[in-house]
Amino acid sequence: MPLEIVTVPCLQDNYAFLIHSGETGETAVVDVPEAGPIRDALQGRGWSLSHIFITHHHADHIDGVGPLRKETGAQVIGAKADAHRLPDLDMAVSDRDIFTFAGHDVHVHDVSGHTVGHIAYHIPDASAAFTADSLMALGCGRVFEGTFDQMWRSLSKLAALPEDTVIYSGHEYTASNARFALTIEPGNDALRKRAQQVKKARADGQPTVPSTLAEERATNPFLRAHLKEVKAAINMPHASDSECFAEIRQRKDRF
Q1: Catalytic residue list
Q2: CA–CA separation, 198 and 192 (whole Å)
Q3: Residue 1: its pLDDT value, please?
């Protein structure tokens, strides 16, 4: 029986995700920006929370962990490298670790850059990757703690996943990301089409997360910094991939 994944809007523009197994009854949540919406989503479906997966230490991803853990007794999983600034962990995981949730393997990827110790969770059986503030819809997180080279390597790692992987990222930033992406590749037909779809979805009050990795490869400028046409577009034809990524990220920071 396949896993069911539910998007839960939180705060102003955050997302959490419920992962439910109808076979075992187990339910995980990826990040807990606030407890209320997640509690409501669980109660509305008659699900009991068994696991909490944390991606990184920022308050808008962990502030609701304490109340939900107290109410449910859920097992909390997060990065060993970040354990000193996360809620107490029942399981500390590291890059390339694999653990089991509801009979499905969960692969852990270190995707440091936005923060040092940020991790993503990939569930191959579900063709799903939970990337929070590393790879985002048409974007990526700001490089707050790591280096641009580190962030580029993290994004490249995620870009190497199967193209049908669904990317569950942490924020509804896609409309702004689309406007910026068009400043880098205004002639990208796939990007122009996606930007229109994003604009309509937001006008209709619909989320633009999740997306597919295939979409991100075709339209996300932060995944495309290695391409000749993108290097030419930013007047850096002979620069390294990492240098081009850094230039694009810095342009976004000023956008």
Answers
A1: 56, 58, 60-61, 114, 133, 171
A2: 10
A3: 79
